[in-house]
Amino acid sequence: MSAPRLLLARRITPAAEERARRDFDALVADHDLDAAETIAMAKQHKAEALLIGSPCKLDAAAINALPDHVKVIANASVGYDHMDAEAAKARGIVVTNTPDVLTDCTADLAFMLLLAACRRGYEYDKMMRDGWGIRMGLADWLGLKPSGKTIGIVGMGRIGRAMAQRARGFGMKVIYHNRKRLDPELEQGAEYFADLKQMLPHSQILSLHLPAGGGTLMTRETFALLPKGAVFVNSARGALVDEDALIEALSSGHLFAAGLDVFRKEPDYDRRFADLPNVFLSPHMASATQETRDAMGNLALDNLAAVCAGRPALTPV
């Protein structure tokens, strides 16, 4: 039996790409394809399976332009807000993503953002690269002690719970807002707030861990509800944040600092953030470890192989 015909429309790790070439009749793109390129190359290759990434914006019109031989679309990511999954399902196309395998690395980076924001990581690093050369007294260049703080977590899914676990290791009190309250064994003693606005005044550190799609969560109003001197961390989605409001809160001193891995416009993010010394920045790299990116690629390929063989997808959306 011939191997399934795959269009690899995004670049993946060498180990995962080697497997794709071995197990599939794979057409491998040399760059991350956009929607038009994906549609054209899927037709050219008569692909049954597509492996895509966020640069491939498959809205309903693009989904409907895909050839009929496409059976399955695998996202090598947890998020799939770059595509219209419901439009794909309406055409009988299975859509998958890669949950679980990137939980730990995403929480690790989110906690790095938290620590670097609290302890003025950008400013200390810049000072050293500029040659140091100044003496600092006991009252100079002080950060915040993260240990013992109260952390508010918005979105208590896998990654939010992993963030809570790391926070407990630093003696933090964990409070959270979620669509529904978790079972006690998942809460692990965290305090639930059904109303986000009621939780914010108690959040000395606020960390977002929820998908986009529900509109802008952090606005001038919600930032103002945080206590003065709070720290804001976002490793979820840039669309959740009014960036003008965030910049105002950082510039005014209402927020002590922020750690950001995601932005409303990527990669051409708002460069005003780079001018703020109290922001620690990362270019959307939460899952970027060798181990995790290999696992993401392999899970995407596992899903494609299963569907092409007539079996259920492992992680359908």
UniProtKB/TrEMBL annotation:
Residue span, D-isomer specific 2-hydroxyacid dehydrogenase catalytic domain: 10-317
Residue ranges of every copy of the D-isomer specific 2-hydroxyacid dehydrogenase NAD-binding domain listed in the record: 111-286
Q: Name one Pfam family in it.
A: 2-Hacid_dh_C
Record keyword Aminoacyl-tRNA synthetase present: no
Organism domain of life: Bacteria
In terms of InterPro entries, this protein maps to: D-isomer_2-hydroxyacid_DH, D-isomer_2_OHA_DH_cat_dom, D-isomer_DH_CS, D-isomer_DH_CS1, D-isomer_DH_NAD-bd, NAD(P)-bd_dom_sf
Task: Provide this UniProt record's keywords sorted from A to Z.
Answer: Oxidoreductase
The UniProt entry, under Gene3D superfamilies, shows: NAD(P)-binding Rossmann-like Domain
The chain's coiled-coil residues are none
Kindly indicate whether the keyword Oxidoreductase belongs to this entry. yes
Family the entry assigns: Belongs to the D-isomer specific 2-hydroxyacid dehydrogenase family.
Identification of the protein by name: D-glycerate dehydrogenase
